[in-house]
Specification:
Strand content: 15-25%
Number of helices: 14
Structural class: alpha/beta
Low-confidence stretches: none
Radius of gyration: 22 Å
CATH class of the largest domain: Alpha Beta
Mean pLDDT: 94
CATH topology of the largest domain: Rossmann fold
Largest sheet: 7 strands, parallel
Helix content: 25-40%
Order of helices and strands: EHEEHEHEHEHEHEHEHEHEHEHEHHH
Strand order of the largest sheet: 3-2-1-4-5-6-7
CATH superfamily of the largest domain: Glycogen Phosphorylase B
């Protein structure tokens, strides 16, 4: 894109072609921030609506001013260090950390060389060995919003209408707890013939046998028509699938941050989530959903059943979930807080 160099203030690298949570974050945020600041992305596979420049141009921007290099992966931190120390580019180095485990020695060394660090949750910040600014992810609350007519939407998507529908979206693998969701829903459905569930996502090659085992488990219970396995939907269409649900379950055994509960709640869908990642900072237990221990199908089944059996509570949680997203998790809030860090770095200050 023909963006003048003197307007470029921040470069956000995306050094991974395959879609990931990091890539999705860049795709959401950069166009929004570019309305107010000279923020561009760089790297392969970026959609045309994202302001971006070729990597070679990011490596040859003039030395007449400081710019921010906003890395979100180890490779991007390393490249930022090379640009500054080997090529002499004037980049302030910023890293966003979502990890919730002890970093390797190599990653700790990279992080120690950054000018500043953002953590996506208080829990993530606790694993850093240096101060960080905590900025929770936000959601496009216009795109992700309650449906006008849920039954009409379900008919358009080929989903069952006028029955309780519970969803679990994301990669199909052990880490994501898909098996826990399936076991919990089998337990719920044994005594609730009207309940249906949707598992939507993709299993990569190494996890195909895991998915086959789950499908076989469902078949043994005779529930193939009630627990539906659907292929991964395009990112641009995901809001419609959340809008079709009555309840969303995030069954992860481990998670860095986890956007799916935010996307569900923005659509007015209550959430049952495990106590991993940032979920305890996202879901208000008893108000916008419930929290359960990871890996515990029995507790998950009891939480799901308790909500499905109490429609008034579900209605209150639906309204509270949407209000919670509007009050605290709008994408515009995330963008503004990140731009506040950019501005301080560009002014030579250390963000608080």
């Amino acid at each position: 894109m023909g963006i003048p160099s003197d307007r470029i203030e921040v470069v956000a690298p995306n050094l991974k072609r395959r879609l990931s949570g990091v890539t999705a974050t860049i795709v959401r945020l950069v166009p929004l921030m570019a309305r107010e600041m000279g923020v561009v992305a760089t790297g392969p596979g970026l959609p045309p609506e994202v302001p971006h420049i070729p990597l070679v141009r990011a490596a040859t921007l003039g030395r007449d001013r400081w710019r921010v290099w906003h890395a979100r992966r180890n490779t991007e931190m390393l490249l930022g260090l090379a640009l500054r120390h080997l090529l002499g580019r004037r980049y302030r180095l910023l890293f966003t950390s979502a990890s919730q485990r002890r970093h390797t020695r190599y990653t700790r060394w990279l992080i120690s060389r950054m000018d500043h660090v953002i953590a996506t949750s208080r829990k993530s910040a606790g694993y850093l060995e240096r101060p960080a600014t905590v900025i929770l992810h936000g959601i496009d609350t216009q795109g992700f919003s309650p449906p006008a007519d849920r039954d009409a939407l379900r008919e358009a998507l080929g989903l069952p209408v006028r029955v309780p529908l519970v969803g679990c979206f994301g990669r199909i693998r052990h880490q994501k707890g898909t098996d826990v969701f399936v076991e919990a829903m089998i337990e719920v459905m044994r005594s609730r013939a009207e309940v249906h569930a949707v598992v939507m996502g993709r299993a990569t090659e190494r996890h195909l046998s895991y998915e086959r085992d789950l499908r076989a488990r469902v078949a043994r219970e005779g529930m193939e028509r009630r627990i539906l396995f659907l292929p991964e939907a395009p990112v641009a269409e995901m809001a419609r699938w959340y809008q079709a649900l009555d309840l969303f379950v995030a069954p992860q055994r481990w998670e860095g941050f986890g956007l799916t509960p935010l996307e569900a709640m923005a659509c007015g869908v209550p959430v049952v989530a495990t106590r991993v990642g940032a979920f305890e900072e996202l879901v208000r237990a008893g108000e916008t959903g419930l929290l359960v221990p990871p890996g515990d199908a029995g507790e998950m089944a009891r939480a799901v059943a308790g909500l499905l059996d109490d429609p008034p509570a579900m209605a209150r949680m639906s309204a509270a979930a949407r209000a919670h997203m509007l009050a605290r998790f709008r994408l515009e809030r995330e963008a503004e807080e990140i731009m506040g860090v950019y501005r301080k770095l560009l002014e030579g200050e250390r963000p608080s």
